[in-house]
Amino acid sequence: MKRNFFPLVLAAGLIMLSCKSTEKKQLVKKPVISYVMTKEQQAALTPDEVLADFIEGNKRFQTGTTTLRDHSLQARKSAPGQFPKAVILSCLDSRVPVEDVFDQGLGDIFVGRVAGNFVNEDLLGSMEFACKVAGAKLILVMGHQHCGAVKGAIDNVQLGNITAMLSKIKPAVEMSRDFTGSKTSKNDEFVKLVSENNVKYAIEQIREKSPILKEMEDKGEIKIVGAFYRLTDGTLEFVK
Predict the structure, then answer these.
(1) pLDDT tier at 7, thresholds 50, 70, 90
(2) What are the pLDDT digits (tens) for 17-33?
(3) Closest to 107 in 3D by CA, of 132, 138, 136
(4) Euclidean distance between the first and final Cα of the chain, in Å?
(5) How far is residue 67's CA from residue 9's CA, in Å, rounded to a whole number?
(6) What is the reported pLDDT for 3?
(7) In angstroms, rounded to a whole number, what is the distance separating the alpha carbons of residues 137 and 128?
(8) Which residues of 74-111 are buried (b: 16+ CB within 10 A; e: fewer)?
(9) Structural domains of the chain in order of their starting residue, each with its CATH number
(10) Residue 166 CB neighbour total at 10 angstroms
(11) Cα(142)–Cα(118) distance, integer angstroms
């Protein structure tokens, strides 16, 4: 009895065509960005537009579709001057790649980093420079999941200069005292609450200790917002 090989040949042909189609799609190259933000582009932006741009950039980061950039060329083009859209206060944590989280390029954002993303005089001065002098339109304070500095403040760690540093986060621990569960660094829900309160406290400090930034916010020249970044999936939760 003869076997009919036609269906097998047809199936093999369709598979080959499918593979070639997939190869063609893979060969389509994404454009590589090499331009940098200009003073005119920065001036035309509103704080809400910058925030919307960051939200869209984070979505690209989550899905692995971030923008391709020529950082070497951007570095050379930005050498004469910088006109960033925003300043971000982030934790020191190496698992929080700030530019990547928002899919921003070289020259797009100022980044201030300190363990526990708290506010002090130096960071306030840096923010005032970023906004009042250099024209940034947004201040974003970003805490994150599994923050070691927050856990250290919860555990009342005593070690060298770390002790004084963690004291800046203690107000957030106090703000979280009404939490009904276990108030330890081993409870992820409590750590998240303290991290979010730490962001809120930092924003309060910005408004209270920098009349310059407070006035700019009141006039609508800048926006000050907070966010909580999840290490496990790259998502952002905005803190209110």
Answers:
(1) low
(2) 555 555 444 545 678 98
(3) 136
(4) 76
(5) 41
(6) 53
(7) 11
(8) beeebeeebbbbbbbbbbebeebebbebbbbbbbbbbb
(9) 33-239 (3.40.1050.10)
(10) 24
(11) 10
Per-residue DSSP letters for the chain?
-----HHHHHHHHHHHHHHHHHHHHHH-PPPEE-----HHHHHH--HHHHHHHHHHHHHHHHHT-PPEE-HHHHHHHHTT----SEEEEE-S-TT--HHHHTT--TTSEEEEE-TT----HHHHHHHHIIIIIT---EEEEEEETT-HHHHHHHTT---HHHHHHHHTTHHHHHHTTT--S--STT-HHHHHHHHHHHHHHHHHHHHHH-HHHHHHHHTTS-EEEEEEE-TTT--EEEE-
CA distances from 9 to 1, 2, 16 (A): 19, 15, 11
196, 236 Cβ separation under 8 angstroms: no
